[in-house]
Design goal:
The protein has 337 residues and is of the alpha/beta class. It has twelve helices and ten strands. Strand 2, helix 5 and strand 3 form a beta-alpha-beta unit. The structure holds 2-acetamido-2-deoxy-beta-D-glucopyranose (NAG) (5 copies). It comes from Chenopodium quinoa (Quinoa).
Amino acid sequence: MNPSSSSSTTTRPCNFAILRKIAVLISTLGIAFLILSFSSPFNRFNRFSPLDEQVHDEYYELRKLLKAASTKEKTVILTYLNEAWAAPNSIFDIFLESFRIGNNTAYLLNHLLVIAVDDDAYTRCQTLVSHCYLLKTNESSAIAHQANFMTPLYLDILWRRLAFLQTILTLEYNFIITDTDVVWFRDPFPHFITDDSDFQTSCDRFNGDQYDLNNFPNMGFLFVRSNNRTIKFYDFWVSSRHSYPHLHEQDAFNRIKHDPVVALLGLKVRFMNTDYFSGFCSPSRDFNKVCTMHYSKIADLKTALEDWKTFISANQSELSQPFNWSVPNKCLYSFLG
Ligand SMILES: *[C@@H]1O[C@H](CO)[C@@H](O)[C@H](O)[C@H]1NC(C)=O
Ligand SMILES: *[C@@H]1O[C@H](CO)[C@@H](O)[C@H](O)[C@H]1NC(C)=O
Ligand SMILES: *[C@@H]1O[C@H](CO)[C@@H](O)[C@H](O)[C@H]1NC(C)=O
Ligand SMILES: *[C@@H]1O[C@H](CO)[C@@H](O)[C@H](O)[C@H]1NC(C)=O
Ligand SMILES: *[C@@H]1O[C@H](CO)[C@@H](O)[C@H](O)[C@H]1NC(C)=O
């Protein structure tokens, strides 16, 4: 039955090949049709448009905050915060300080919308930044003290977060989503707006080709434009949890990025150079380029802030060798070889 293994006839293998192509095409289109027509997020809002600001539905508060926080181009910077990370002298304080000591990054705090997942995180958020949204769920009290991130509960939080981000897209806002353990040293917008890609992500490992799907993304920092392609893609991504119940959303992304459905949607994905958007697996090698740095430990984040302060206060013309991070390389991912 395998066309390529049969060489005795010339017509039948060819017919099989064509039939198989047609079958693949039909099933692919069928899947795409299902996704495009039945799972559109707009189907969930049958009485009101999610875009209508006057409507007092469940998105009333969120719409008000998005409007207040967004840039002229309708982009917001989002981060998730729980009580453990919001406590004084913990990750959130370091995160905010990086904006203040970064180069032209302080203004970005006006566009930061913090998604607080429990009451204490929300209360502390309000004392520190202008835009805070309380996203309470039945899991809020369990999440509040959660600092260890590979539990089943955390997995659930990640997938819920993905669905929430899709809501942001349907409300017609672009977003940067940043983990709170990412420190910001330069304004990332100039890097995003010069390219029309829909979905631009930081990487654990960057292979030099920004449009190559084989790059390893890191979902700790990414920029997504709101449009029909991204809304449908998020729908597809959220629904992929059924296929990958034990994976977190980043690993599920790595599986579905090659799916024909994604190509059919026309989603334009871009992987950002780790010289600009980096993490402990591939730290930026150039302090004159680095925009963001992602660590997971509070001590490493503090060290990164000290490194940056030393760099900007140094007399650049007197630096005898390129500046380097003081935190030793601790990447444990096997894919890095
Ligand atoms: C900070 O930004 C200004 C204006 O963009 C630039 O001239 C300067 O070189 C930057 N400083 C550093 C350390 O990158
Ligand atoms: C919260 O509700 C969801 C369903 O809405 C359920 O799957 C989950 O187990 C609940 N979590 C807790 C901690 O009760
Ligand atoms: C989706 O496409 C329709 C028709 O082309 C357009 O009117 C609408 O604004 C688009 N929605 C978004 C979020 O871009
Ligand atoms: C930086 O070093 C150069 C060369 O030694 C010197 O000419 C310059 O005045 C220094 N700049 C500052 C701001 O100290
Ligand atoms: C910078 O530091 C990292 C981590 O300690 C090390 O692996 C790397 O070789 C250093 N790079 C340079 C250019 O010194």
